[in-house]
Each structure stands twice: as structure tokens, then as C-alpha cells.
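Recall that a protein's primary structure is simply its ordered list of amino acids. Everything else, from secondary elements to tertiary packing, is in principle encoded there. The following example makes that idea concrete.
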Amino acid sequence: MRRLRDERGDATVEAVLAVPVLLLLVLLVIQFGLYYHAAHTAEAAAQEGARAARVEGASAADGEDRARTFMADAAPTLVDDVTITATRDTDTARVEVRGVVHAIVPGLSLTVHADAESPIERFRPDTP
């Protein structure tokens, strides 16, 4: 079978155009998978921090330390520039976790934000 002269190299040109697009799509799928995982890790860290801060006799710093430890253990390189803020008043403990997901797609910056709030535990004696 004879090929026409003007069709030579079409497959090469198509591959050169298609491969970068396919690689970008694969990287985007991986990046959003990392974002999903980072968002759930940040949420879990906020919940852990709120649990630690709500205990009777604990402080907001206890919750912040627990959330920071959780993030360092669960995702040490997944989330960059992690900021953890914990507050505690007489009724509630609140922990907020923010960070930037490590980028594998150049120029794409995704941030995660999670917060958890819980009532303070305290002993209340029975009343007759």
C-alpha cells in the first residue's frame, strides 16, 4: 500500500501535540487527589486539636499542639505553610487549620482550610 507524500509524519505530529496534554491531565488528577487527601487530613487534625482542647483542665495551646503533631505525623510533606489557631473560652474549644497543598503542577496553588468546634468538658454534679 502506498502512502501519500503529504501524510508522512502525521502520527509524530499528533503524538507531539497529544502527549503533553495527556501528561497535564494525569498531573491534574494526581494534584486533586492530593488536595482531597490534604483536606481530609486538615479536618482530622482540627478535630484532634478540638478534642485535646476541650478536656477539663486543658488549654487552647494543648489543642494547637495536638493538631500540629497530627499534621506532622499524618502529612509531613503534603501541606506547606501550616497555620494552626486554637481558641478556648468557657463554653467551647475551636481549632482552625490552614495550609497550602504541595504543588506538583507548576503554578497551581491550592489551599486547605478546616475547623472544628466542640463544647468544653466539665464536671457537673447531680442536682436533686
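The longest strand covers residues 79-88. The chain has a mean pLDDT of 91.
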